[in-house]
């Protein structure tokens, strides 16, 4: 472990330069349909380029997968977050967020908008949540080895600010319900070699693989 942790701003400045070959010639984020495991590994898994997989028949959820389920699990101490991101809300914890007024939770007009995210790394929490969802069918089984399940949700017009997710593995997110606009920006050293900004809209059932160690990402709900 580091004795001193640098602010994100300095980490971005002092990081090693990125090889820009992964984004050269990329004009738009590709969308593919019903991708197989074999084609994913052959054509997309190791390129570093973002891709959206649409109409994955196995990326489904049960009817009650949503705010009330999360609240019930939290109240029963069966949902224990390992990390919680309040973003621009006033919430200090996931438990506090899930106890917001029902009208606000249901996005009633006139109530303060919100957007939150949290990670689940305890086995009991993950198993409970996975009873209600299925993983994208094109992902190899080894892609689930890290055993951390993230959930992000919020009201229209709000989302995460532009940021870099410093993770050791490629990142993927499946849109369970609603719509989300992703904005991806190439690193500064690639501005004159690659297109600087990409946008893509996610619909329910689609999955984006963003390989976020190499991209700055912003997500907005619609």
UniProtKB/TrEMBL annotation:
Q: Which organism is it from?
A: Aphis craccivora
Q: Which InterPro entries match?
A: JmjC_dom, JMJD6_ArgDemeth/LysHydrox
Matching PROSITE patterns: JMJC (PS51184)
From the Swiss-Prot or TrEMBL record, give the protein name: JmjC domain-containing protein
Which SUPFAM superfamilies does the UniProt record give? Clavaminate synthase-like
All residue ranges annotated as the JmjC domain in the record: 124-222
**MF terms (GO), sorted A to Z:** 2-oxoglutarate-dependent dioxygenase activity
